Each structure stands twice: as structure tokens, then as C-alpha cells.
Amino acid sequence: MGSDPLLVKAARGDPVSRPPAWMMRQAGRYMAVYRKLAEKYPSFRERSETTDLIVEISLQPWEAFHPDGVIIFSDILTPLPAFGVPFDIEDVRGPVIHSPLRTEEHLKALHPIDLEKLQFVGESLRILRQEVGDRAAVLGFVGAPWTIATYIVEGGTTRTYTTIKSMCHTAPHVLRALLSHLTEAIAEYIVFQVESGAHCVQIFDSWGGQLPPDMWERWSKPYIDQIVSIVKKKCPKTPLVLYINGNGGFLERMKGTGVDVIGLDWTVDMADGRKRLGNDISIQGNVDPAYLFSSLPALTDEIHRKTVVIVVEEQKQTSRIPEHHKHTHEMTPIVAPPAATDLPLAVCPHE
Ligand SMILES: Cc1c2[nH]c(c1CCC(=O)O)Cc1[nH]c(c(CCC(=O)O)c1C)Cc1[nH]c(c(CCC(=O)O)c1C)Cc1[nH]c(c(C)c1CCC(=O)O)C2
Predict the structure, then answer these.
(1) Kind and range of the H or E run holding 262
(2) What is the mean pLDDT of each run of 10 residues along the chain (351 residues)?
(3) Cα–Cα 20 to 30 A to 57, which of 35, 136, 149, 218?
(4) Which pLDDT value is given to residue 285?
(5) Nearest residue CA, atom 43 of ligand 1?
């Protein structure tokens, strides 16, 4: 076997010469080449469900600045139609599920995941793996059952999570059945991504932080635990990463899922996060994306301030990032192993 990519080593806690770096939403609207392609193919679903386009878009940042991770251009909702939930992405509203699932009757529409319908994902991962080899980690991703359920139950993006949160009390059996269904589908989908070429898979429980921690333990964690246990049996070597938006109240609980890497957001002090999590797990994230709007020295200082870091860039509002701001140095280091206090903290020497 050749050498594993830096990011994979760091995710496993092996020693690395420097922290690897990649950005979330690193493919997308801040890049002129992407905007041009999006003009030609205006539908997000077409861009994210056509092998050639997925590969081309995923490789745009790789070609521009050689990050240590190449994340597949896709979405957490992409697998939905493959288990019976149609959806659209609208320009202003974002994700829309026209028939939200709220009753026992609605559960009948769900069926086991049909991976044949997701061949564009498998095929794209295979090609990405060929293109980058082991020079970077090919990153797959999925949504956690709770986070995906928020879209399926609410019918789209929500600020309040009123319907799904009241279901916890008024129709717990329906919600449990939905979450169990999603658990099986997502576990299978992760294994499929790994078998297709993903080095590492990130689980986004982006909206898990909308639950009080004790409710997260009841309505999100058990399903993530199950996913981790199924995937670890089939793909014991593949590092799994877990991220929650606003995860300050959740760190120890996240570690309890058995994932290999915890994505910290910038509301948690890095040293506090490390203290709370201990030295036997890797950490990534933690740099406020607002630093992308600062000067290069300020960004570099912030990264270096983080000592043993694994930093993921959450670059959500990418369209607002001026093109000239986008160059190598704006990458943030993402993964450093727990034992790497003596690491040189320089970030991403690629030019
Ligand atoms: C707008 C939106 C979509 N899908 C979703 C939204 C957010 C809506 C809300 O706030 O409720 C749902 C979603 N999609 C993704 C997440 C998890 C990450 C997070 O917390 O932001 C979530 C919560 C991963 C993703 N979704 C996407 C990626 C891209 C892969 C990469 O990082 O390059 C990821 C990790 C891509 C995506 N996904 C979507 C678009 C339009 C795009 C392309 C962005 C662009 O044009 O620049 C549709």
C-alpha cells in the first residue's frame, strides 16, 4: 500500500509533518470557473447529479490550490430520492420537500436505499480517487438522521424546528420510525461511498445543536451510534468525522458516538475543546470563517494561535468572498493528531 494522505493520517491520530488543510464548501460560488459552469447548468440538482459535472466541480479547488482534502460536490439531501423522498433545490428557498413526512401513513413512501440511483456518486468518487490518488484525501459526506429528518419533516429549511420538535412529543413513534429508516439508508450510503473511493467520510449533524443536549442524546445520538457501529464493522479503517453547528454543549457526547474526528466550531476555544475531549481523538475546524475576510497575517496568526489544530473552514456564504481573497494561504489547517503538540504549525505550504 502506498502512503495514506496526510489528512487520513491526522484523522487516525498518526504523526504528521503539518496539519492538513481543506475548506468546507471549497467548491462553489466564490470561484469564477464554478459560476460560469453554473450559468450553463443552472440546476443544482443537475450539477450535483451528473458525473462529469460533479468531478469537474470537485476538482476546481484541487486544481486551484491543492487542498489536502477533495470533497465531493454533492449535498446531504442527494440520497433522498433513492429511498422515496423527492426534493428540489430552489434558488431563494433552498431545499424544498413538497410532501413533508408527518404521519404514519407518510412512512409508507419510504423504501430501502437503491444505490443504483446514486451511481453518479459512486462513479464520481472512483474518478476523483483516480485523479488525486493518495496526494489528497477524497472526502465523502452524509447528513445525520436528525439533520436530514428536519428537512423531510419541516418540508425545507426552518428557523424554529417547531414541527419536528413537537413530533418528539406528539408522534414519537413516527419520528423514531423515520430516524431508523434514515439510519439504515445512511449507513449503507456511507459504506457505498467508501467502497467507491472515499478515504474519509464526514457526518453532518448540522442541526443537532438545535436540540437541548439531553434531547440530542435521545433523538440524534443513538442513530449516529448505530451508523458508526455498522460502518466500523464494514470499513474499520475509514476515519469518520462528526460535525454539529454550535457544538459547545455537545463535545463529550459527540465523542461518545465512537467517531474518529470531532469538528469544532469557532464558538469553542480550541484549548478548552482539547481539554474536554482528551488526547485520544482528533479535532478539526475551529477557525471563524470571518478570518477569510481579514488580512493574510491575521489569518495566519489565528491559525497558529490554535496550537494543535485541526481546522476546517466553514465557508458558507461563499458568494460574498471576493475572488482575490481566494488563494492558498486562506486555507486553514484542518487536522492534527492529538500527540502533535510539537508539530510545526505552518499551514499549507503548497503554492
Ligand atoms: C442551500 C442548501 C443546500 N443544501 C442544504 C442547504 C442549507 C439550507 C439551510 O440552511 O437549511 C443542506 C445542507 N447541505 C450541506 C449541509 C451540511 C453542512 C452545513 O452545515 O452547512 C447542509 C445543512 C452540505 C453541503 N452542501 C453542499 C456542499 C458542497 C461540497 C463542498 O464543500 O465543496 C456541502 C458539504 C453544496 C450545496 N448544497 C446546496 C447548494 C445550493 C450547494 C452548492 C453551493 C454553491 O453553489 O456554492 C443546497
Answers:
(1) strand 261-264
(2) 84 82 77 91 96 97 86 97 97 93 97 98 98 95 98 97 97 98 98 98 97 98 98 97 94 97 87 89 80 67 53 30 25 30 30 30
(3) 149
(4) 79
(5) 28
Neighbours of 31 (CB within 10 A): 20
Q: Are 24 and 321 in contact (CB under 8 A)?
A: no
Over residues 234-284, the pLDDT tens digits come to: 999 999 999 999 999 999 999 999 999 998 888 888 888 889 999 889 888
- Å from CA of 88 to ligand 1 middle: 13
Distance of alpha carbon 187 from alpha carbon 170, whole angstroms: 27
For ligand 1, atom 32, name the residue with the nearest CA. 25
CA of 2 to the centre of ligand 1 (A): 33
All residues at 6 or more sequence positions from 296 whose CB lies less than 8 Å from its CB, including other chains:
329, 330
Backbone φ and ψ for 87, nearest 5 degrees, come out as -150, 165
37 CB within 6 A, ligand 1:
no
The DSSP 8-state label assigned to residue 333 in this structure reads B
C-alpha cell at 97: 420537500
**What is the whole-number distance in angstroms between the Cα of residue 147 and the centre of ligand 1?**
12
